[in-house]
Design brief:
heterotrimer, A alpha/beta (244), B mainly alpha (287), C alpha+beta (356), B: mainly alpha, ABC transporter involved in vitamin B12 uptake, BtuC, two-stranded antiparallel ribbon, globular, C: 356 residues, alpha+beta, four-stranded antiparallel sheet, two-stranded antiparallel sheet, 15 helices, 6% strand, binds adenosine-5'-diphosphate, binds magnesium ion
Chain lengths: 244, 287, 356
Amino acid sequence: MTLLEVQGLDVHHGQLHAVRDFSLAVDAGQTVAVIGANGAGKSTLMRAIAGSHSPTRGSITINGADVTRMPAHQRMRAGICLVPEGRRLFKSLTVEENLDTGAYRAAAGPWNVDAVMELFPWMRERANQNSASLSGGQQQAVAIGRALIGNPKILLIDELSLGLAPAVVKQMYALLPDIVASGTAVLVVEQDVSQALAAADTVHCLLEGRDVLSGKPADLSRARIEQAYFGLTSASGQTVGKGH
Amino acid sequence: MDFVNTLVQGVMLGGLYALFAAGLSLMFGVMRMVNLAHGDLAVAAAYLVVVLLGSSFLPLWLVILIALPLFALIGYATQRGLFSRSLKAGPLSTLLVTFGLSIIVQNGLLQAFSADTRTIDFGALNTGAFRLGPISVSYLGLLTLALAVAVIAGVQLFPSRTRTGRMMRAVSDDADTASLVGANSRHLYAIATAIAFGTVALAGIMSGARSSFDPSMGPAQLIFAFEAVVIGGLGSLGGTLAGGAVLGLTQAFAAQIDPSSTLLAGHLVFLAVLAFRPQGLIPQRAV
Amino acid sequence: MTTLEHLPFHAAVVRSGKAPKATGGLLAAAVVILAALPYVAFTGATSAMVTFFVLLIMASMWNLLAGFGGMVSVGQQAYVGVGAYTVLAFANLGMHPFLALPLAALTCAVFAIPTSWLAFRLRGDYFAVGTWVIAEVYRLVIIRFDSLGGANGKSLPGLSGMDPVLRGALTYWAALAIAALTVTGCYLLMRGRTGLALTAVRDDETAARANGVGVTWSKRLVYLVSAAGCGAAGGILIIDSLSVQPNAIFSVQWSAYMIFIVILGGIGYLEGPLLGAIVFFVLQQLLAGYGSWYLIILGLIGVAGAVWLPHGLWGTITRTTGLQLFPVGYLLRTEPVTGKTAGKTTSPKRRIGSST
Ligand SMILES: Nc1ncnc2c1ncn2[C@@H]1O[C@H](COP(=O)(O)OP(=O)(O)O)[C@@H](O)[C@H]1O
Ligand SMILES: [Mg+2]
């Protein structure tokens, strides 16, 4: 059964049409990735799904229930948790307090502060430190932990790897299978195409707000993805080095 | 021994100011707003107690037990119905809304109760005092001081020790992100305002038992509370207690020297702090 | 005028609207007609108009301070009081009270210098309450001077011998002159460098500072001008009532009136106080008999206006019709490069920095 279904979504920033007629479906146990260049509208899409930004048209349903007009704080209780771009930890709260905010309206489930600290043992030592003193990767871990503790049906992660060292990125992606195994579907936004292709069951490529290419990673050729990613009309000779 | 006596009176007066200031400080800490109707609400609470005492056979403690939650409830409703709208419209709008509210409350009280002064009858507590050697300590002053310390400790601990308090800090940091973990910022802000209204009602009642009041006293109460906050250091509740004490002591000693200079001396200390130590005596962010 | 040559269309940043000759003419005519009023109307009417002018002056000054300078003060009554007491002090020394009016403005500007030094240490809401405390300090200091009447106030010497009709007319003209001066002064100030600097600050204070805009200086100038204007208004008040009472002249009610008028009229628009003062004046005349209900209603309107009509009456009018009496903003005027030159007027496309 489809867990999250987005249909014909249009999102505006004032005059700017940031997401156009976008549709997507995530089934339970799936990992779906959205890729696209800077400014393609990925964050806007995620914020619209999480309820931080009202769409102008289209619908969002979770397990068949329409949540399109539901405010963000209720949508979290409906089972959607977003790890926002740039981590956005609460700066006057300690690491442990940051994690604990996730438990404020959490659903019942496998994740709690202890389980997250089990996953990242360093957090125990730094539990009482101010969250601003952490490195980027550590902040990302806390932000993911905070969202996981809500025991969402679907976890949204905006820019999982942005600004992180390659080794840390690898660690982060190694986590995804664990999360999915715990019963949570994952929708991840990524600029690092090869990571996204390796991790996801389905990929959507966003260009200027439009879904220009989607499918299973195995079915998509490298050249077509590059074309879609950069919005090139033909891939001839264009070998812009992206990914690693 | 006059000196010690004045010292004691000053500290107890300071306790009252700190009690007034706790809610002001909390609202500023969480929502970055100053409620200009703060003092008028205190006066309104005092009138409510006078009316309830006069028109029913309820005992004083029960009346207070009714008045405080009632004010907290009013605070919750005011935040959700009014302040949340003005906060969305911007800081200027909030300031004007609370200023308008101050005028409404003040003139509403004037219309309902005339300009005559009243006091709250606390029975023996009003005048009772015990002697500690050569100095006399009023029960009421001591009770007020104890309440001030308790309220400030509570308002200090609540944000760090309870989950609701932590969510309040989270919302204050970043309401947008807090909503992603299920925090309804309007509800949490309203709780902060409810606490502020409840504590200022308590301050108004204690003040109304200590000395007589009339509808026009609100702005003066606001100003004392504000001075206590700034002297102590913005956002620091411990500082607020110290600020209240400094203000109370200054006024008590000035009154000893020249009764007509009481208020002026307090204001001048405030201005001196502003000029030479603008961060306040104990600067820190508590909420 | 700056033209941007590299754009695919002609774009020019111009003053939004020509120096409004029509408005200038209209206002000049209004002033002339109003100046003739004492010859045709009863003293009752001119006396009521004095109140109107005083409100207009105060509101314009508060608008300058809060709407353009971003300084929301609840303490401008400090200068109303100091202005009134300055006139009293000079009259005590034998000076003609009318001649003391400019000195009242000047004294307030001088007092405003050290005051601003203190008050500018507070930001936002705390600035508001801080200015209120400062106003209280002025009141408490002044009532310590027995020669100024102490806590009970005093009547103004030097005018008792004058014919009441002549005195009424002179008061009226003085109030009218100061009101006209205030409105014109605000306009010129906001059109000039100060206005530009303050607009930059309002949009982005950090960026403005980084670009070398004299932020503090501009704010202080506006604060001083505003103090001077309120001082002159206070001077008119004491001349009009022939006495002064410290609690009344230093009452926070003056701030309430200023704020109410500006919010109702439209904050950040020079036209706002004018429109607001007219509406307020009419309300005052209608509700004057209702005691404290009058203030309760004002408070309610103020609260409702602040929440639901944040741009005030004038803001709403100018947003729907584009009408402007005192254009102080700038327009980005664009037109395609097809033939026409950039100097010609086309319909305004965008207004820059002209609303809060
Ligand atoms: N708060 C905002 N206000 C106005 N425009 C915005 C806002 N956020 C994003 N945009 C614009 O929307 C478009 C999509 O942005 P975004 O969703 O952040 O893209 P991405 O996450 O793919 O980099 C961009 O053109 C961006 O400039
Ligand atoms: Mg993004």
